UniProtKB/TrEMBL annotation:
Domain HTH lysR-type: 1-58
GO molecular function: DNA-binding transcription factor activity; transcription cis-regulatory region binding
UniProt xrefs under SUPFAM superfamilies: Periplasmic binding protein-like II, Winged helix' DNA-binding domain
PANTHER family in alphabetical order: HTH-TYPE TRANSCRIPTIONAL REGULATOR, HTH-TYPE TRANSCRIPTIONAL REGULATOR CITR
InterPro entries: LysR-like_Sec_metab, LysR_HTH_N, LysR_subst-bd, WH-like_DNA-bd_sf, WH_DNA-bd_sf
Official protein name in the record: DNA-binding transcriptional regulator, LysR family
Record family assignment: Belongs to the LysR transcriptional regulatory family.
Keywords of this entry: DNA-binding, Transcription, Transcription regulation
Amino acid sequence: MDFKQLESFVMIAKLKSFSRAAEKLYLTQPTISNHIHTLEKELGTILFNRTNKQISMTQAGEIFYEHAISILNKKEHAFFSLEEYKGKIEGVLEIASSSIPEQYYLADALKRFSLIYPDVRYNLMKHDTSQVLEKILSGEIDFGIVGAKPESAQLDCIDIMADEIVLAGPANGLNSIKTEQIQDLPLILREQGSGTRTAAMKFLKGSAGLDPETLKIIAEVESNETIKRMVELGMGYSFFSLQSIKKELEDGRLKLIAHEALCILRSFYFVFHKKRVLSPLSDTFKNFIQDEMKYKKGEGK
């Protein structure tokens, strides 16, 4: 068993394709197939189901996957420690984030991080909250930044930023609304799985006593910017992160809709797997985030 075999195994598991894994690792498909054949022979078990051109891990493969990730990350930690000793930390930091924290938190955090580690490069991937959490659970990514606290017992998180969800409409729209009127509003919402939508629906169901299924949803849109424009044009109303519409409120293009009981508070979270060893660069970024949070709370002073 060697590192090349483990890298091939992990990449195939992530991409669910021998050919795509070979392309990603700059190997030929026969070479990567040979890596898996040799690995399976040494382990005495089959790691992948290969039926109808669909690739999936066997139960043995799923068990071995966690160990393979851990071994490869520990190898990276060894090299990383040596580079750190020599005074140079570099590499590509892959970050998956839902849209609101990506736009209103991540850029500032990366700027601060890059002042300490100027040789690090970044690969930013945008998904909704549920997709980010699923990718962490599957091992496809090390960590993510999302707008809803994870419910899975396998995940841990760091509270990194407070946020408020508000109801907003066009400049010539309603000034205030009662709870029972919300279900008659033409609503333009983010897609299912969005942290903003999840927080709003949880509030309406729990605190306002409304059934989300009875809401008048006229559109589901993935882009927060598109929703802002649709609301601005008078097509409907929406729940927004207050962070995301400050400029529109200042310019008078959108306005907040007053509601006596509407108070939806949430946080953004840095999420990672409890039991999985992070890559050294991901671990460095996590420690950086933790140190910043401690400082903001007064623990680092």
